[in-house]
Amino acid sequence: MNAPIEDYALISDLETAAMVGRDGSVDWLCLPRFDSPACLAALLGTEDNGRWRLAPVSGGPCTRRSYRADTLVLDSVWETPTGSVRVTDLMPPRADVPCILRMVEGLTGTVDLRSELRLRFHQGRVVPWVRDVGHCTVAVAGPDAVWLGGDGPVRDRGDEDATVWEFTVTAGRRLALTLGWTPSYRSAAPSPLWVPAETALKETVDFWRRWAARCHYQGPWREPVVRSLITLKALTYAPTGAIVAAPTTSLPGRIGGERNWDHRFCWLRDSTRALSCLLRSGYRDEATAWLDWLVRTIGGDPADLQTVYGVKGQRLLPETEAPWLPGYEGSRPVRFGTSAVSTFQLDVYGEVMDTLWLSLRAGIPMPAHVWELVESLMGFLRRHWREPDQGLWPEGGPRRQFVHSKVMTWVAADRAVRMGELLGRNGSSGQWRAMRQEVHRQVCREGWDTAQRSFVQSYGAPGLDASALLIPRVGFLPGRDERVRSTVRAMSRLGRGGFVRRYDEGAAVPERQESAEGASLSCSLWYADALAATGRRHEAREVFERVLSVRNDVGLLAEQWDPDARRQLGNAPKALSHIALVETAFGLSPAPGGGRGVTAVGRR
User: Fold this and answer.
1) Numbers of helices and strands, H then E, in the chain
2) Is the dihedral of CA 315, 297, 341, 377 positive or negative?
3) Handedness of CA 440, 469, 603, 238 (dihedral sign)
4) CA distance 522 to 528
5) What count of Cα atoms within 13 Å lies in the side-chain half-sphere of residue 212?
6) What is the predicted pLDDT for the residue at 508?
């Protein structure tokens, strides 16, 4: 059996990440980037698909664990019959090549430990050629080489399938193991193996604490906000500023189901919320880097705008399946890459425009070529906004007239008008104003269900969709509007165990049908925002606290929550869940001047 998703903690070097279980096993690692092939993939299979377990020989999960305050440095403590030991896991921010540092310290008595490294390159499939080079062990397969070194004596118990080292620690004794990656054509071990472990630990702790200290949030939920911001930073690909949706692939929304997607890429639908989250939290440099990545990435013909891109701005992300991986708890297929690059989603045009507007309002300059991009995107959208599209969610199905897509089309026109006014560029504003008015009238006429007194998922269909909760947030209608209030009341029908599902699966088209998945944590937080916008702040706070209660023991959220099985589901940790947490905390917290917080930055 695979460990529960909530058993995993995240460590990252700002270019890739690893998932560490409560049993001391690193079960997921892609090198050298987030979207590189996995060399440890037990998360989606068994130990034979790759893992690095470091724990007492007696086995079992750790007794307790936690991140060091305001860092991404993980301490796990085991208490055994013979003594206690702490393992500290970290990835120093990338300087040259990626590495994982695992430091062992005896606390009391005597503890026997075992390090078992089973590398399986190319998505948990290829067994490498392993040999000893000096004081290190190196494993090579194709373009990849992984080096393992230690700074103390160990007993080699390895075989042809794994590198196994055993050693004993007593109270006060320390030993560090370091795993580093290099291209296989390099003949020397990577330099991180020779940096004193204590130095690397101190520098990593200092880095994260300096970064966390910049957070502007001072409200009642500072700890979960800072933890969410650290998680968002950990999911940032530092060379480009891109933010991946999650560091994992194919963790299911339903155990045994087929909705298993690769989220190690960057979705434009997250762009506005990510920028807002970073700006209002005090991280202008990160917000600017994310914006720069966005502008570079989407350049070109506006007809070619994709919903998702790679961390370097790649457009081709071919989706493949891995039949050799049994999947998380048998959930198949396991997918690498994403076919979402070919979907037509109108909402992304609104997300891009909203992001550019938000950055302009925050004082980030807009170069002339970016305004040309605005005009190009709006020219395309004016010609195509009436067309059906494939909607916000990834399950596919035929194109339809999705209400959220039309609302975001309105957002695109509205933000283009406002940017033009602010910049004194009003050449096309008349056309954009007319488009904004026409879209608004159409959505209010076609997207409103009189019988249910609610906005629905798509024109002419009765199903509800949680994306309607964003209507007041984006300024399409104010929270005091009775249509918004009634829609928020209707969303109780999407409730499951106090949380909110993405949409009404019973009313979905056949192509989207599958047994019920978990409730969406980001949608549950959107519900809290909408409750606050309609004056129901006490209920909003209850929903928010409920989401906080299902974070795992180190403060992480996956994509979904199953209220019946009381477990996290979907890829983890999920950037959008943590972005929504920060945004909701700001919205529900008292403003510095004594007033109430707001639900967005730079809105109407």
Assistant:
1) 13, 28
2) negative
3) negative
4) 10
5) 23
6) 52
Q: Which of 68-77, 113-122, 267-276, 593-602 has the lowest mean pLDDT?
A: 593-602
Bridge partners of 147, per DSSP, are 138, 180
Whether cis (ω within 30° of 0) applies to the bond prior to 32 is yes
Taken in order 494, 496, 500, 505, the sign of the CA dihedral is: negative
Beta carbons of 543 and 524 less than 8 angstroms apart: yes
Q: How far is CA 128 from CA 27, 39, 139, in A?
A: 17, 10, 6
User: Crossing angle of helices 368-384/347-361, nearest 10°?
Assistant: 150
Would you state the pLDDT for residue 577? 98
Rounded to whole angstroms, the Cα distance separating 501 from 97 reads: 41
Buried b (16+ CB within 10 A) or exposed e, 348-386: bbbbbbbbbbbbbbbebebeeebbebbbbbbebbbeebe
Q: Which amino acid is located at 246 in the chain?
A: A
Pairing of strands 448-449, 519-520: unpaired
Q: Residue 556, SS3?
A: coil
Q: How many CB atoms lie within 10 A of CB 288?
A: 18
Rounded to whole angstroms, the Cα distance separating 198 from 174 reads 10
State how far the Cα of 232 lies from the Cα of 555, in Å rounded to an integer: 12
Which whole number is the average pLDDT over 547-565?
98
Separation in Å, CA 100 to CA 178, 201, 294, 462: 6, 11, 30, 51
Counting every residue written for the chain, the total comes to 604
- 305 close to 298: Cβ distance less than 8 angstroms: yes
Strand partners, 103: 88, 176
CA dist., res. 465 & res. 444, Å (int):
15
Q: What is the DSSP string of 534-549?
A: TT-HHHHHHHHHHHHH
**For 494-546, how does the pLDDT look when each residue is reduced to its tens digit (9 = 90+)?**
999 999 999 997 655 444 445 578 999 999 999 999 999 999 999 999 999 99
How confident is the model at residue 513, as a pLDDT? 47
Percent of the chain surpassing pLDDT 90: 89
Write out pLDDT tens, residues 506-517.
655 444 445 578
Q: What is the Cα–Cα distance from 189 to 53, expressed in whole angstroms?
A: 22
